[in-house]
Amino acid sequence: MDNCLFCKIIKGEMPSYKLYEDKFTYAFLDISNDGNGHILVVPKKHCKNVLDCDEETLAHIMKTVKMLGNHLINNCGFEGINILNASGESAEQSVFHLHFHILPRKRNDNMHVFPTLEKNAKTLEELCEEFKVK
User: Can you list the pairs that 106-114 forms with residues at least 24 positions away whose Cβ atoms lie under 8 Å?
Assistant: First the structure.
């Protein structure tokens, strides 16, 4: 896609701090330089988000996410990772090329990644009935 920031990075038209690349995926450091080494994993094939990505491409992305996560834990001294994704503008997706964030974690690193959410007005029974796949 011509105006896609991540497509330009994949094509080498924009610089990146590449950590890993294979036939299907590309992983690089997020330019925000936050956390303990914020990593983005993207498919080389342009997909807007998880919802329009084909299953084969999504499987390749998750394989890369898992491999990098294991590398961070087994070789880089981290104890865990957060994997984050936003799919859709209302979910706060800011770059409309599918990407997963990997945040390397250590015990007591004082990063608070998960939001604090307000209680839902509906009961769990009501939500279950509303959301159940039929």
Answer: 106/36, 106/77, 106/78, 106/79, 106/80, 107/79, 109/36, 111/35, 111/36, 113/82, 113/84
What residues are labeled active site?
99
Question: Which residue spans within 25-68 are E strands per DSSP?
Answer: 25-29, 39-43
pLDDT value at 2 more than 80: no
Residue 113 in this model has a pLDDT that exceeds 90? no
Structure confidence at residue 64 (pLDDT): 98
Model pLDDT for residues 78-101, shown as the tens digit of each residue? 999 999 999 999 999 999 999 999
| Whole-number pLDDT of residue 132 | 95
CA 59 to chain centre: 13
Which architecture characterizes domain 5-131 according to CATH?
Answer: 2-Layer Sandwich (3.30)
What DSSP string describes 88-115? Answer: SGGGT--SSS--EEEEEE-TT-----SP
Domain ranges of the chain: 5-131
Q: What percentage of the chain's residues is helix, strand, coil (to nearest 5)?
A: 30, 20, 50
